[in-house]
Amino acid sequence: MKPTRAAILVRISDDRAGEAAGVGRQEKDARALADRLGWQVGEVIIENDVSAYKRRTVTLPDGSAALRVVRPGFRRLLELLALGQVDGLIAYDLDRVARDPRDLEDLIDVV
Q1: From residue 77, how far is each of 36, 64, 80, 89 by CA, in Å?
Q2: b/e burial code for range 15-44 (CB count within 10 A of at least 16 → b)
Q3: CATH assignment of 5-101, among 3.40.50.1390, 3.40.50.720, 3.40.50.12160, 3.40.50.300
Q4: pLDDT at position 108
Q5: Burial 79-109 (b: 16+ CB within 10 A, else e)
Q6: Which residues does residue 90 pair with via DSSP β-bridges, in sequence order?
Q7: What was the pLDDT predicted at 18?
């Protein structure tokens, strides 16, 4: 079965001008692809000026510290997929979705 409701994920890691032009172009292209495929867009997740590789120290549930990429938008995408609120993903390129192997593994686990 092919997906009919997709999330669109757009991301630019460095937007020095703060104009969100890159994510705007990505969203326009992703919406055009959704139209060509006959898919509905369930939600657009915008990560402007968000790195998918830079890690920060976070506290894990067990109290230990670890380095992780912190991306609330990406976590939202995983939640939408896991809950069945969307059944597909459109992104400009895979590197817009995940650069950290752990993030890619999390996405694979959900789908």
Answers
A1: 22, 26, 5, 9
A2: eeeeeeebbeebbeebeeebeeeebebbeb
A3: 3.40.50.1390
A4: 92
A5: ebbeeeebbbbbbbeeebbbbbeebeebbee
A6: 8
A7: 66
β-sheet bridge partners, residue 110: none
pLDDT in tens, 71-111: 889 999 999 999 999 999 999 998 899 888 888 898 999 88
pLDDT (tens digit per residue) in 1-14: 566 899 999 997 76
Supply 59's token pair. 């506290």
